[in-house]
Amino acid sequence: MRLIFASLVLALTGAGCSDIPLSYYDAATYAQLTGLKAEATLLVESFDRKPVADNEAKIEAATLEFRKALEYEKGKGPSNAETTEQVEKLGRLFDGDVQEYRENGPASLGSKYFREAAVVLGQAFDIAIATENLKNPLRQ
User: Fold this and answer.
1) 81, 18 Cβ separation under 8 angstroms
2) Burial of 122 by CB count in 10 Å (0-12 exposed, 13-18 middle, 19+ buried)?
3) Arithmetic mean of pLDDT, 3-30
């Protein structure tokens, strides 16, 4: 898990080395990321305890929220490429957790597998949230 997290951190922060200027701080993005973090991590934590069928509606709802967040970020244009890329990576990380859950079900990967996966997902969200926060001139 730590190796996955380290790779994720490098991938998410590596976007900061591009020549594309940072976009402006967006309170809607900040609110969307923090809300989606709470929703997605809580859902992934539940994968250790609940059968897949019990979570399908929540998975679909969260997947829709990830797509909405991605479309919102894409709509801000090229200057927002870093945030767009981070939201894409968050969505892929969530999708990977869902795929593992659907293929293996609860507790087959260990009783705390998805709790740890939720921690990694939360840490990835923290990076994206911090990146957005860095754009806020009031926080500097």
Assistant:
1) yes
2) middle
3) 60
- For 83, residues 6+ apart whose C-beta sits below 8 A from its C-beta are 23, 29, 73, 76, 128, 131, 132
- From residue 32, give the alpha-carbon distance in Å to each of 26, 79, 88, 133: 10, 19, 14, 13
Cα–Cα distance between 124 and 53 in angstroms, integer?
27
* Residue listed under structure tokens 């309170």: 27
Q: How far apart are CA 36 and CA 8, in angstroms?
A: 18
Q: Do residues 119 and 66 lie in contact, with contact meaning Cβ atoms separated by under 8 Å? A: no
45-97 tens-digit pLDDT: 999 999 999 999 999 999 999 999 999 999 999 999 999 999 999 999 999 99
Closest CA to 39 of 62, 16, 23: 62
pTM for this predicted structure: 0.82
Q: Which long-range contacts (CB under 8 A, 24 or more apart) does 102-106 make?
A: 102/52, 105/51, 105/52, 106/47, 106/48, 106/49, 106/50, 106/51, 106/52
